[in-house]
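Forum: Protein Structure Q&A
Topic: Joint prediction for protein chains with partners

I've read a bunch of threads here and the consensus seems to be that you should model interacting components together rather than docking separate models afterwards. I'd like to see that in practice. Below is the full input, 586 residues plus whatever partners are listed. Could one of the regulars post the assembled result?
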Amino acid sequence: MAIVDIDDMYFHYPRAALGEGDEGWTLRGISFEVTAGSTLGIVGESGSGKSTLIRVMCGLLRHQRGTVRFEGQEIGEFRGKGANELRRKNQIVFQNPRRSLDPRMTIRRSLTEPMRALQGRKPDDDELIVSLEKVGLGREVLPRFPHQLSGGQLQRVGIARSLSVDPTILYADEPVSALDVSVQAQVLNLLMDLRDELNLTLVMVSHDLGVVSRMCEEIIVMRDGRIVEAGRTDAVLTRPESEYTAALLAAARLASLEREVEAPG
Amino acid sequence: MLEIRDLRVHIDGHEIIHIDELDLPPGARLGLVGESGSGKTMTAKAIAGLLPAEAKVSGTVRFDGNDLLALNDAQFARIRGKRIGFVFQDPARSLNPMMRIGRQVSEAIRLHTDLKGRAITDKVVELLTQVQLPDPASLVRRYPHQLSGGQQQRVMIAAAIAADPELLIADEPTTALDVTVQAEILRLLISLSEERQMSVLFVSHDLGVIRYVCDRVAVIYGGHVAETGSVDDVIDRPRHRYTSALLAANPGMPKDDDFAAFMGQRLHTIPGSVPAVGRFPSGCRFRNRCGHASAACASIPSPVTGADGHRYSCWNPGGED
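Posted by a regular:
Agreed with the consensus. Here's the joint model:
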């Protein structure tokens, strides 16, 4: 069953200089479906529209043309309590937890905010500790401020915060690219474990084809605001149809740990 | 080309770096790999004399026979930028946003060569051509913001090689770039190094990139060289437990016939995170995160050297020669 269904969607930022055809649009003619419980990877170079796309999908940005349906309903039509529910069910983990958590709030307060804003309730410490334990942290972080935690710990807080309101879809926008290699692995494993345990739909933006191959059954390759290729990850990455996907793949293999045969220069 | 012996950097009473021994042969490309806080960039800066005054640097760094650490500022200024070129991570921050591309490159030529007048203009165009930028004659009038990230990095490289340096220090030169652009810049660096017999000290967190670019690699952790050797030895036959842990934590890329087995597979993790400066354990810097640590690891392991300069400092090494 499709949990998100996008049809011929176009998006532009305010005051974009729109021209002939689809010139000036950040997203152009996007159509695809996300199956409930699946994991989707969105890849493409910077400026291709990946991050904009997930922000439209979860209702943070409003598209101008086409349709974006969540659980069958156009996301622009969610109002009042419905809009709150939309936001609760669609949660994002951002790339840089140091920038996405308020530096003046304790972790306790940062964790409390989504439940207060979206569910109108104030959790007690016991509940916060349960959500921290799910991501491998403990009660000792509650009184701390973001600058007192490492990047990996902060990203775990970011994940705990998103999961605290019991979402159906978790969007992760380059969730590990600000982290060290040794910490990346911990966070990626955590995301896979939580996805399986909570039966989450996961939509992940990543520039790393290795991460996407490991985590995502489905892949979308974007360029210049368009989808150039989409399908099952193994099919797309073993038999790419577009030249662009092939180029991305070649570049990723070149910088992989395997010794490549390609002669330099 | 570069011979480092007993290089130590102290800041606020903490010993941040201690590189006992590291060599970069002429024309070779040496990678310094490590996570953030490992000391890789600080090592490169110590070599280049670019550390702040509060850093106390000792030991020797021989460059073509001269000890760089014994030079005074004026002497160092005659080498830095001229015989040793630099490329940094973020070209948008390294270039002057108010200055046209031509002038950014010509300034390097004016500072470090004897060229004058028209010869400088010609040299700028020649350098921009060498770094494979399109239409150099009109590019010189552009400003940095009119160029893509990859083009900006090519301009930085053009300025860095203006005086034909014997050594290029490149600190994460492609980390801010997209993967397809990264591949182009890496190819360019390799071909420039080969054409000019220019040695390269390549600093990166990415072992895959280092394998592509470099002949040799030093794995840095806690300011120490955990392991060094040819890229093939270190990556395919790691001995130090940190090197193998780092390799196993890498997401990697599946082979074409291997996708099904790859999907959903958990990564090997290293517990905890890289300690803050001054918080590394004594002895082996990695021992508090290592699954193979023993009582011996409380003292600093003496380096073991195998064939082809494959050297590691680990009390409980994995693999075999």
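The radius of gyration of chain B is 21 Å.
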